[in-house]
């Protein structure tokens, strides 16, 4: 099976063997946009070859957030314009302590090594809030997408009715939190009218399968919101009753729709989510979100 999916209109998605992470190419001879290039060295070679074959006069790299698996491709385009959230530099600095170890271990697991080592970088263009951008023929809408990462943003292509959802709305992973669930819920609720107003027909998550058709996209929203709202409600109830965190984790570990794929256990992520939901507003205040 090919790792490539051609969505039409110059949009191509390449799925990594590692964590089924999706990198997105917007290819046009005037301008190519590379979103989250990764993960393995051979896969980055493949992405770079596809961009080169497009004959693009300009290349821009967009990083949806600063987690290690989404940032490794910078070295393949050392002179390219780079775009990320304005919280990206601080988030990347916090991540540097484990980026190399995780990248090396993942490459070794797949029989590869890094000829180009990752080096920290500062994106040339930093965005936040709601921003519109035109890169050659591509019209993109960037939105804050907090809840999973302090530096996360989604990318909407309204003309192509496509949403690049960063690490949200996956069919193989539950939402993974870095703060209280209310923050993540607010992010999804902000995107809901976008999906409904000019129906999003294609949704590319950071990991997992592409959702095709407005109904499939709506189901991704429903599923993630149901998980988050249930987690938030039940954790608050347990905390209000004075149930200790350890007991709350035991009671909530068997929540519905936690394990979505047999090869990607979410048990540890779910336990962390319970802790953050239990801490509630204190967790949100601590994260700065």
Q: Please, what is the average pLDDT? A: 95
CATH H-level name of the largest domain... which superfamily? Ribonuclease Z/Hydroxyacylglutathione hydrolase-like
Count of separate DSSP helical elements: 7
Beta strand % = 15-25%
- Distance N terminus to C terminus? 40 Å
Widest β-sheet, arrangement of strands? 1-2-3-4-5-6-7
Give the tally of structural domains. 2
Overview of the structural elements:
This protein has 289 residues and is an alpha/beta fold. The protein folds into two domains: 1-127, Ribonuclease Z/Hydroxyacylglutathione hydrolase-like (Metallo-beta-lactamase, Chain A, 4-Layer Sandwich), CATH 3.60.15.10; 168-289, no CATH class. Helix content is 37%, strand content 20%. It has seven helices and 13 strands. Strands 1-2-3-4-5-6-7 form a seven-stranded mixed β-sheet, with helices on one face. Strands 8-9-10-11-12-13 form a six-stranded mixed β-sheet, covered by helices on one side. α3 (181-197) packs antiparallel against α4 (214-240), α4 packs across α6 and α5 (245-252) packs across α6. The N and C termini lie far apart (40 Å). The model is unreliable at 282-289 (pLDDT under 50).
């Amino acid at each position: 099976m090919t790792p490539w999916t051609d969505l039409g209109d110059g949009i191509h998605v390449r799925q990594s063997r590692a964590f089924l992470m999706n990198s997105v190419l917007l290819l046009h001879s005037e301008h190519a946009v590379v979103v989250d290039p990764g993960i393995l060295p051979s896969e980055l070679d493949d992405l770079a070859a596809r961009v080169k074959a497009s004959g693009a006069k300009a290349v821009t790299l967009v990083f949806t957030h600063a987690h290690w698996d989404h940032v490794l491709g910078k070295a393949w385009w050392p002179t390219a314009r780079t775009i990320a959230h304005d919280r990206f530099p601080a988030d990347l600095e916090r991540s540097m302590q484990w980026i190399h170890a995780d990248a090396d271990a993942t490459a070794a697991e797949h029989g590869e090594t890094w000829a180009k080592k990752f080096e920290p970088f500062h994106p040339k263009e930093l965005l936040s809030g709601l921003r519109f951008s035109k890169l050659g023929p591509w019209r993109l809408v960037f939105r804050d997408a907090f809840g999973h990462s302090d530096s996360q943003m989604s990318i909407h292509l309204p003309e192509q009715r496509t949403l690049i959802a960063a690490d949200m709305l996956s069919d193989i992973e539950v939402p993974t939190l870095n703060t209280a669930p209310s923050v993540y819920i607010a992010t999804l609720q902000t995107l809901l009218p976008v999906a409904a107003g000019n129906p999003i027909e294609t949704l590319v998550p950071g990991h997992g399968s592409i959702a095709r058709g407005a109904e499939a996209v709506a189901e991704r929203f429903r599923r993630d919101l149901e998980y988050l709202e249930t987690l938030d409600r039940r954790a608050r109830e347990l905390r209000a009753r004075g149930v200790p965190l350890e007991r709350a984790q035991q009671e909530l570990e068997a929540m519905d729709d936690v394990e979505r794929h047999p090869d990607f256990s979410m048990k540890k992520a779910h336990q962390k989510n319970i802790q953050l939901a239990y801490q509630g507003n204190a967790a949100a205040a601590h994260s700065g979100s």
